[in-house]
Amino acid sequence: MQEAKLLHARLIILGLIQQELHLRNLIKTLTTPNNTSSLTYTHLIFDQIQHPSTYIYNTMFRFYATSDPHQALQLYEKMHQLGPPPDNYTFPFLLKACSNIANGAGLRKGQELHCQALKLGFGSVIYVQNSLIYLYGSNCEMGMANRVFDEMGYRDVATWTTLVTCYANFCEIELARHMFDEMPKRNVVSYSAMIAGYVRRNQFVEGLGLFREMLRAKMEPNDSTMVSVICACANLGTLNMGRWIHSYMRQKKTGQFDSRTNTALIDMFFKCGSIKNAMRVFQEAKEKYVGEWTAMLSGLAMHGLGEQLIEAFEDMVSSGVKPNSVTFVALLSGCTHAGLVSAGLKHFDRMKSDFRIEPSIAHFGCVVDLLGRAGMIEAALQFIRDMPFEANAAIWGALLNACRVHKNVKIGELAARWLINDEPWNGALYMTLMGLYSDIGKLDKVTKVKGEMKDVGCRKNPGCSLIEVNGVCYEFVVGDMSQACIFEICLNLGKIIMDYNENR
Fold first, then answer.
1. Rounded to an integer, what distance in angstroms lies between the CA atom of residue 270 and that of residue 337?
2. 397 near 368, Cβ under 8 Å?
3. Is it the case that residue 38 has pLDDT exceeding 80?
4. Which one, out of 13, 249, 300, 303, has a CA that is 20 to 30 A from the CA of 160?
């Protein structure tokens, strides 16, 4: 930003501020990816350009497409009225902006742009067609996305990958995999899109399986691929696989990892129980942004290291990194797990007073959990009643769990009834309520709750477990007989139990 301001000042002094070549360099410098801090300054410079070219307009559209999509469309209206004419690069940026606008408004504007592109002769440009596929697919209009795809005279790898991404993220993952398998040619972006789709749908085993297939195809994964795979390892708890991936990345990348990768690695190692490795990644990060700090705080929180968590938070603030709302969720959760009630309430108050962050329902839920786990059930209920918005299922669930731990039947029944009324099909709620009654010996009420479960046709979800063997995850679900070696597994497990019972 400072470099761009110096360049701007020099162009003014030399009288070159309206020359196209220099304007291009200045606008390009200001519109680098993730440089959202220069939004206002960039727009002020653009407004001073007497006759902006199509190239400069396109550069602005590219910048605004992700940082401020509404502004991109407003700027296009100016271009449409005053000129210059758009070219084949204009519409892909504008359609990307439309894809980033929710609630149907982006789709409607995108449809207008589709008509304009056809009218101006850009409808058969492959970049425009690929952008149209993503626009319709991201708005769950897969019929139109497929229509654009089917009408294309030529399709490149990006075309197929875009359709796979749409199916994976906004439709059915099975259809995405079918489309992926049908691709005449795949590249690293194709694999990355499919792996990311699996991870987003919580199909982590399938994501890791496709990652191994990618390596066998002699394709080198990119940063996006690795972040998805690290996320899969974190959710599966596959520490050995996570360590291998970290080692693989260190060999392939001699420089520093980017912030997103560091954040994913810290989160993964903490979730896999390796505090030492998580701390190492954090300490080796040359620049520690809010993502790295928040991952560190979340990890300390999940391991109940409350005192270290608060100390790390103060270090974060002292270093000049401003916490965000997610940071405070981690901080309050850590106080909850460590039983630091006073510290948790203090930092909840600091959100607004010191950091100007308006607490969301997630933060209020953390406080309810904090009070409930400490046995302050009545205070937690009063806190819910004093909230500026209605409590959701997560908050009532936290209160119900606290009531079971501290055997508070009266408030526990209140929480359970709210939850059952909201989610009558959720078997876990009935099981928690039955556990509460069973703990205090009210077996008649246990029978009554079982009857309610039967009446609504609700069943307890079967338990499942995962085991990692030679870097491969195997999932076992109660009653599932689909495993190839299930008979041998059950036989050997029976022998182990018998041996244990005989030698006790």
1. 15
2. no
3. no
4. 249
What are 434's two structure tokens? 């039955």
Task: Report CA torsion sign: 101, 107, 108, 112.
Answer: positive
Q: Which residues pair with 469 in a beta bridge?
A: 472
Residues 166 and 130: their CA atoms lie apart, in Å, by 11
**Nearest alpha-carbon partner for 472 in 285, 244, 278:** 244
Judged by DSSP in three states, 329 sits in helix
The structure tokens 């998580």 sit at: 278
Cα–Cα–Cα angle for 410, 411, 412, nearest 5°?
90
CB 188 within 8 A of CB 225: yes
pTM recorded for the entire structure: 0.80
Angle (CA) 323-325-331 rounded to 5° is 70
Q: For the segment 346-389, what is each residue's pLDDT rounded down to a tens digit? A: 999 999 999 999 999 999 999 999 999 999 999 999 999 999 98
C-alpha 211/C-alpha 225 separation (Å) is: 8
Contact yes or no for 274/266 (Cβ under 8 A): no
Nearest to 121 by CA among 147, 149, 86: 86
Distant-in-sequence, close-in-space partners of 12: CB < 8 Å, separation ≥ 6: none
Lowest mean pLDDT among 13-22, 60-69, 219-228, 398-407: 13-22
Residue with structure tokens 């200045």? 26
Q: Cis link prior to 84 (omega < 30° from 0)?
A: yes
**Contact by Cβ (8 Å): 116, 128:** no
Torsion angle of the four alpha carbons 422, 426, 431, 434, in this order, in degrees rounded to the nearest 10 = 30
Residue-wise pLDDT for 177-210, tens only, equals 999 999 999 999 999 999 999 999 999 999 999 9
Query: At which residue do the structure tokens 């689909």 appear?
Result: 482
